[in-house]
Amino acid sequence: MVQRASTYRAVQAVSKGKLELVHKPLTDPPPGYVRIQVEACGVCHSDSATVEGLLPIQWPRVPGHEAVGRIDATGEGVEGWKAGQRVGVGFLGGNCGYCAYCRDGDLVNCINQGYTGVQRDGGYAEVMIAKASGLIAVPDDLSSVNAAPLLCAGLTTFSALRNSPARAGDLVAVFGVGGLGHLGVQYARHMGFEVVAIDRGNDRGELSKKLGAHHYVDSSATDVAKALQERGGAQVVLATASGGKAVAAALGGLRRGGTVISLGATDEPIELSAFELLFKELGVEGALTGTPAAGDATLKFSAMSEVAAMVETLPLERAAEAYARMMSGKARFRMVLMMV
Known about the structure:
Elements: E1 7-15, E2 18-25, E3 33-43, H1 48-51, E4 67-74, E5 86-89, H2 100-103, E6 127-131, E7 135-137, H3 144-147, H4 153-162, E8 171-175, H5 181-190, E9 194-199, H6 203-211, E10 215-218, H7 224-229, E11 234-239, H8 244-251, E12 254-262, H9 274-279, E13 283-286, H10 292-305, E14 311-315, H11 319-327, E15 334-338
Parallel strand pairs: 8-9, 8-11, 9-10, 11-12, 12-13, 14-15
Antiparallel strand pairs: 1-2, 3-4, 3-6, 3-15, 4-5, 5-7
Helix pairs in contact: 4-5, 4-10
């Protein structure tokens, strides 16, 4: 009989900006939760909320909300999930099922839902405990490394585009071809939109075309709004670049009734013209990840259409290095920690 180890390795934030490798005691999952043997975990910019203490946090805390692995134990009352099943855990830690938003079907805005890696330990670890109501099913034809970034970057861009007012054949612009945008371009192309990629410099142009963009606009050399209007105006601009100025600039490229969907988390204010909003009936929206069912759809769609993140991998013990590379903007485009 093989005896299970009583501890597992994890990388946790212990103070502002400091990550350290530790051994944590293995525990059984409480009612409604599962225990997962993590195989891979993406390193996301939102992890800075934990590592840098941008949100109210109690250190030590294990970051990571793009975790993929196999269930090895289920808590009392868990139904629909079983040991050995491959699952993913995203940013939302699992809805409560009884608050006013949950009762209305709005699981994303559940007021009792914690954030993975913020209120509960996340996936920078060999083992994690996760609430069953937040789990996402991982298809067999997606590797754990490829699936991990899709649980946040993929889910966020996929859901935003799928729920947008754009329809097949409409002009859709993706502002920023980086960690989110390089996936947004791929999803937009496979959803049947006419895709315009927008970024700074000629180097992103060739990449954008390879990812599926029909057109590329170099924002450092071209008036973005004018370029979009010359093509009739965008029905949707997916603004993945952080910054209120980028969102405001995108408004001028919309057609009447068009919408800017902002995905970049920033505290920079967005300056908008009420005249533009009123007389062109424009909209500005934000999109925060998606439901577990949308996560299932994201992974399934990605596998069917061969949408994939560009990733760099490092072992768990080099998590601090992976985090630093991601925060510096040097990663191209997603960092993934490997446990096995």
